[in-house]
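Write out this protein's structure.
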Amino acid sequence: MSADAGERQGVVVYETSTAAYASEQVLHRAGLEAKVIPVPRSLSTDCCLGLRIRWDDREQAQALLRTAGIAFVAVFEWP
């Protein structure tokens, strides 16, 4: 994922790594940038993987994931 300088990022946190990888595929098919990344324990103790997205895409991403039936815990702004 190539972020422009200063572009805000978000991370979607999951309970399973399977959900993170499935989410990446769903968002790519919809034309959104997404990348599976390691998530610090400070954000999640359930799963060590999350999905980095553009912060401005967070609402669309959440809607797509809900429509696809993929459960996620939360979306956090990511430095």
